[in-house]
Design a protein that fits this description.
2 copies of one chain form a homodimer. The first copy, chain A, is 26% helix and 32% strand. The first copy, chain A, has helices at residues 9-23, 35-42, 46-58, 87-90, 119-124, 165-173, 191-196; strands at 62-65, 69-72, 96-107, 126-135, 138-148, 177-188, 204-214, 220-227, 234-237. The A-B interface holds A 47, 58, 60, 63, 65, 76, 78, 82-84, 178-188, 203-207, 209, 213, 217, 227, 229, 233-238 and B 47, 58, 60, 63, 65, 76, 78, 82-84, 178-188, 203-207, 209, 213, 217, 227, 229, 233-238. Chain A binds a DNA duplex through helix 3.
Chain lengths: 238, 238
DNA sequence: TTATTTAACTTGTATTTACAAGTAAAAAAT
DNA sequence: ATTTTTTACTTGTAAATACAAGTTAAATAA
């Protein structure tokens, strides 16, 4: 595990307010305390408070209105996978199960990989995982993850079942996801995909190709996610 | 038209840098001038410069690295419709044409509308437009837009052909898009959609349902976009 | 009563100052 | 030559202050 570095004040306030919004202390449409009130409540200055609030606004938790205040935004009821978070945080409190299809193995990169790779990545080979995510016992996501084998000792031996890949990377290797790119398509389900997602062949499936950046420059996490959107939508906010 | 209000300094610098990145003055991987250099160059203080840079970073134009500097991020080659901007700005310099299928008309809202509506919106009726967007002469988007008829005089009479709806709302009604929600699904093309997008029936199509917020509280712009993703992907950054 | 003005809030923009923390290259020591 | 240390940069965090601009409700005037 990793020593918890000192957390900035603005980040602490961000987490507190975020939790309050999630827990319903502040409900949709509510006004947050004004910036000056937050200054007093939490003993910080306005620039610091404002940094917390603008981080919340960027995440879609609140909207700010000059002259009025910060208003809590409604929370999405669909699956918010478009944001940076992994599947685990995206589905919230739903009944989420993970089934490992292919345990983490080290192997060479596919020949026609969906993103271009650096020389270092190519040489290192990739750690490969295939998983199916079930929501209320229905298979919704089939995802294939790739990450270059750079400074990740013992990763193939770790327990993937009930923890997110993100969490393992953070806890054991200090790797944080900083951002990323994604491409989205609608494709017909292949034989393989239709089997995993309990669909008929050629039924429309959402395909996300993602390249996630980490705090380790040169280390990226790639994933190809196939999504059954018959029952659930993918949700995004901006 | 609208009088150009005074533009904040940080916004001006944001626009300058953004343009330089778009024009290739700063290329992918380049370091921007340091914050202190930008202060001197543009005669502002560091917090102001930092506000410009963090806006650029939020938009995905740069990534900031403590101790190193701000690095220009690569530009997407696909269609960036996941962000706040409309189709016009999303496709960049591509050859984009717009075909109006149904000219703007005022009519009642559909019975089973995709988003819930306020009483005021319901009473006002909606302005309805159907358009097909062509990229290099191939039909890619079929979109249906709805907006409540609140303080939008003469809008059904305006020229929609070669201007974005966003532009008309901004120039004539001072309405700016502030953010929004969207749901994404993969669906089989209906008869109607397949005809407009030159696809076979039941081929997979990307379906976006969007609710866009404006600076006018209570006024939203809704759109249902069907997208042929055979050739182009939809691109997003976060 | 009604309409207008004022005042008291709210967030937005901007300056100035200070130090912490991360990075990279130059300088020094081995 | 190689390794280590120092130094000079970079961005990150934080405070104190000031005024602008938008919103709302109270006070005032018609």
């Amino acid at each position: 595990m990793v020593s918890p570095k000192t957390i900035p004040q603005y980040r602490r306030l961000y987490e507190v307010l975020r939790k309050h919004i999630m827990d319903g202390v502040y409900k949709e449409g509510d006004l947050l305390p004004s910036e000056n009130e937050l200054c007093q409540l939490y003993g910080m200055t306005r620039p610091t408070v404002r940094q917390s609030l603008s981080t919340l606004a960027n995440g879609g938790y609140i909207r700010k209105h000059q002259g009025k205040g910060s208003i809590v935004h409604h929370l999405p009821q669909d699956i918010g996978i478009l944001s940076v978070s992994g599947t685990t945080s995206a589905v919230g409190d739903r009944n989420l199960k993970t089934k490992i299809i292919v345990k983490p193995v080290l192997k060479p990169w596919p020949n026609d990989f969906m993103f271009s790779l650096s020389e270092l990545e190519k040489e290192s080979g990739c750690i490969y995982v295939e998983r199916v995510r079930l929501l209320d016992d229905a298979p919704i996501f089939y995802d294939i993850s790739y990450i270059a084998n750079i400074n990740l000792p013992r990763i193939t031996a770790r327990q993937f079942e009930n923890r997110s890949l993100f969490q393992i990377l953070r806890d054991h290797y200090r790797i944080e996801i900083k951002g990323g790119d994604q491409r989205i398509k609608a494709i017909p389900a292949s034989q393989k995909i239709s089997r995993f997602l309990h669909l008929k062949k050629d039924q429309p499936v959402l395909h996300l190709e993602r390249k996630l950046e980490t705090n380790n420059p040169g280390l990226f996490l790639y994933s190809s996610i196939f999504c059954n959107t018959e029952k659930y939508s993918i949700f995004g906010r901006f």
